[in-house]
Amino acid sequence: MSSQPQWTAVDDYFTGLLAPDDEALAAALRDSAAAGLPAINVAPNQGKLLQLLARIQGARRVLEIGTLGGYSTIWLARALPADGRLISLEFKPEHAEVARANLARAGLDKVAEVRTGPALDSLAALHAEGTDPFDLVFIDADKVNNARYVEWSLKLSRPGTLIVLDNVGRSGQVVDAASDDPAVRGTREALDLIARHPKLDGTAVQTVGTKGYDGFALARVLD
Question: What's the CATH class of domain 4-221?
Answer without folding.
Answer: alpha beta
